[in-house]
C-alpha cells in the first residue's frame, strides 16, 4: 500500500524490539465481544490512484459546475474568480501540511499570515480587532450572539427578518442550548430597521445583516444607537465579503461585533465548505472573543515574532470556563483569503466590488425589463430578489432547461413564508453580458 | 586552504555560522521578510481587472466612507512574500510530526487533486439538487463507509470540525432528554479529568454542568469514582469519554462504563479523536457508544492546513438517530438523492441546523479518496502500523525516559518528566527537538501526567525515520537527566528563538499599526 512505508521485515524486527509476538498483543485491552473478527464489510481492498480517480471523476461529472454556463446563485456563497497564485500558495506543503501554530519558533510563517489576516479583517470591517477565523459565517454569527450575552450578562437575542435563515437557525440552536431567548423578527426584504423598535432593556444584542439575504443594503447606524441606548450590542452580519469594498462596513455603522463569511475572497464554492468565518469586534470586548488570536511579541534575541495569545479564553486552558469550544478553525481558508486580499490590495478590492455592483445593476435592469418580472430589493450590492408571475421552482426548472442556473428560490430558504414566487439572484465579476442576455431571453420565453 | 588551478577555493574555511552578521537580514536560504503592510501600497495590485463603467450606484447611499487602506502586492512580490514565510514553518511533508492526539500523517496529493475537480470544487450549495446528484452521492457514500467502520446506524455530516462534532453529539443528547421530558433535570455530564479541553467546554456550551471523574493508576477511568458519581443518577445526562483515551490507552472497562451510564439513564458520548488507532479492529457501535465524532482531518488525513479546516461527522446509535441535525442526504427508491433541509416531515424530531449548507464538502472528497485508496486491508494496516510505531518508540525510549503507565500503548506513547534533573522541564526537551529537525511532541497534556510528553508517530513513518527520531530524543533525554542547562535556551537553530508569550498577552498587539512597529523597533 503506497502510503505505508513499513515492510513485513520492519514490522517483525520492531515487534522483536518491543518484545511482542504480534500486533494483536497491543489490542488485548479490547473486550473480546468488541473485537472485529474478519474484514470490514463491503469495502474493497486498497486501490491505485487510477481506480480511485476514475470513480471520483465519474461522481464529479454528474454535477454542473458554476463555470459551465450562466450562473446566478448567491444567498450566502458566491461564484468569484480566484487567482491561480492563491491556490498555489495554499498548496505549499509548509502551509497545507502543518498544524495549529503551538510551537511558534517553527510556525512563524503561519503566525505572520494570521497576524496579517487579522489586520486585514479588522480594516475591512472597520473594527478594532479580528480573530484568526471561525468555521464559517453562520458559526461566526452564532458565536457573536453568545459572546454578546456574556459581555452584557443579558439573555435576549433579537434577529432581523433579513438575516440569512441558516445563520438564524445556527444562532437559535446555540443560544437556546445555553438558555438564551431568541426573538426572530418577521421575514422582510427591507426590514432591518425593525430591530430599533424591538430592542429593550433586557436585550443582549440585535443582529442585523447588510447586505441581507435578499440583497438589501442598510445603514445600521440608527439601530446601533437604539441598541446602545438600551445597553445592548449590535452584531452586524454579512455573507458577501466583497461588499466590504464599497458598502458601509460594520465599524462605520457603530457595530460592536462584526460576523461574516469570507468565502468570496480566495475560496471556491466547494458545495458549501470549507469556508472561513470572519469575526471582529471593539477593543473592549477582546477578552470575550471566541477562537484563536495571534499577537505580536519578541523572541529571546529581541526580534519581532508572533504567537497565539490570550489563550486563557480558550478551551485547552480554561476547559469548562472557556468562551467557546472552538479548537480547529479555518486556517488554510484564512490563508486563501489573506493571500487573495494581498493580491487585490485596497484599490483592487474596491474595483472588484464596483464590477460586482455594475454586473448586478445590468442584470437587474435586464430582468426588470421582462414583462411581469419585478425587482423587489430597493438598494443592493451584487444580489437582489425578483418576483415572477409563476411559481419560482417551475421558473428555475425551465431556466435550467435553457442552460441558465437562475438563482435560489426563496421558498427553499423560507418554507411556508409566502415567498413561492420569489427568486434570489446574484451577479459577480464572473457574470458576462452574454450571461445576462441569456437569462433575460430565457425568462422572456418562460413567462 | 586548497585551491584549483584557477585559484578558486575548493574546500571551505571554517567559521561558526553564529558569528556571521548579514546586512540584508536574510540568513542564506532563509530570506528576511517584513510584514505585508511594510512592503505593499494601497495602489498596488496583483490582479488585473477591467475598468468599471461608472454606472450610477444602487447602494442608496449605504456606501463605505473610509477606504480600507490595505496594501496590495504585485504577483511576483506576493509569491515571494508567502514563499519566504512558508520557509519558517515545519510541516509533515518535511519530517516526523509527533504531536500526540493531533495525528499528523501524510496527506496524499491525489486527495487534493480530487477535491479540485470542478464538479466538486466549483458547485454551489444551493444549486438545484438535480444539478448536484454526484455531490450528494459522494456525501452518501462517505456517510455509508463511516457507518460501516463504526457500526453505527446514523451519521450527521455537517459538523465543521472535531469540537463542532462534539457539539453535535451533545445537542442530540440534549434533544433526546428533552423528548423524554428530562431536559431540565438531567444536566450533569461526567468528563474524565484527562479529557481534551473541548469536552468540558462543549458540555457547558450545551447548557450542561461538568462533573470530573478521576483517572486511576493505570491511566483509565477510575471505576470506583465513576460508580460513586452515579450513585445518585437522576440528574445524569451522560458521559464524554475519549477512547482510546488521551493517555494513549484503550479503556479496558468501556463496556461496563457504557452499561453503567445507560442504567443511570444517561448517554455515552465518545470523543473519536483517536479513532485512527482502532479502525478495522474495533467498532465503536460494539462498545455501547451513543454518539461519536470522527475527525476527518486526523483519522482520514485531510490536511490540517495550519489550524483547519477540519471536519467532524458524528455517528449516532438508534437511540439518538431521530435527533440528528439537518441537512442530510436521503436516497429515494428511484435512485435520486434528496437533501432534507428543514425540521419537519421525516426530520421533525431533528434538533435543528448547526451551520449554513452541508458541511465540509472539500474534506468529504479527500476523506473518501483516502478510504477508497486504503481499502479494507489498508485501513486496518494503517491503524496497526500507527500502534506498532508508537509502541516501538515507547520500547526504544523507556529506559531513558519515564513511561507514564505500564504496558503497551495504542497509537501514542506517553511519558512523564520524572526522569529529568531539577530545573529541566518538558518544554526544554520539546524545544531541543526543534534543533534536531523535529516538531515537538504534545507537551503538558494530558493534565493527569506531570510534565506530560505525548508522542504520536502515525503510520506514515518508516523504521529508519523512527530510529533517527529515537536517537535524537534519546540523546536529549540523557542531557535532560544530567541537567544540561543548554537545553533551557533551545531552540538555537530555528527561524526564531523562544518567544515572549507573557508580553504578548499582557499588552496584546493583535494587528499591525505604524506606531506599534516604530515602538518595537526603538526597543
Structure overview:
The complex is a heterodimer of chains A (447) and B (523). Chain A has 447 residues and is an alpha/beta fold. Chain A has 2 domains: 117 residues, Aspartate Aminotransferase, domain 1; 257 residues, 3-Layer(aba) Sandwich (Aspartate Aminotransferase, domain 2). A 7-stranded mixed β-sheet of chain A has the order 1-7-6-5-4-2-3, with helices on both faces. In chain A, strands 10-11-13-12 form a 4-stranded antiparallel β-sheet. Chain A has a two-stranded antiparallel sheet with strand order 8-9. In chain A, helix 3 packs antiparallel against helix 11 and helix 11 crosses helix 14. Chain A is globular and about 80 Å long. The model of chain A has no long low-confidence stretch (mean pLDDT 96). Chain B is α/β, with parallel strands linked by helices and 523 residues long. Chain B has a domain of 257 residues: Type I PLP-dependent aspartate aminotransferase-like (Major domain) (Aspartate Aminotransferase, domain 2). Helix content of chain B is 33%, strand content 10%. Chain B has 14 helices and 13 strands. In chain B, helix 3 packs antiparallel against helix 10, helix 10 packs across helix 12 and helix 11 packs across helix 12. Chain B starts with 35 loop residues before the first helix and ends with a helix. The interface between A and B is large, with 212 and 209 residues.
List keywords for this structure.
heterodimer; A: 447 residues; alpha/beta; Aspartate Aminotransferase, domain 1; Aspartate Aminotransferase, domain 2; seven-stranded mixed sheet; four-stranded antiparallel sheet; 37% helix; B: 523 residues; globular; disordered C terminus
Strand content of chain B: 5-15%
* Average pLDDT score of chain B: 95
Q: Report the mean per-residue pLDDT of chain A as an integer.
A: 96
Shape summary of chain A: globular
Order of helices and strands of chain B: HHHHHEHEHEHEHEEEEEHEEHEEHHH
The major pleated sheet of chain B works out as:
7 strands, mixed
Radius of gyration of chain B: 27 Å
Per CATH, the architecture of the domain at 113-369 in chain B is: 3-Layer(aba) Sandwich
Most residues in contact, chain pair and counts: A-B, 212 and 209 residues
Fraction of residues of chain A in helices? 25-40%
Distance between the termini of chain A: 58 Å
**Would you give the CATH topology of the domain at 113-369 in chain B?**
Aspartate Aminotransferase, domain 2
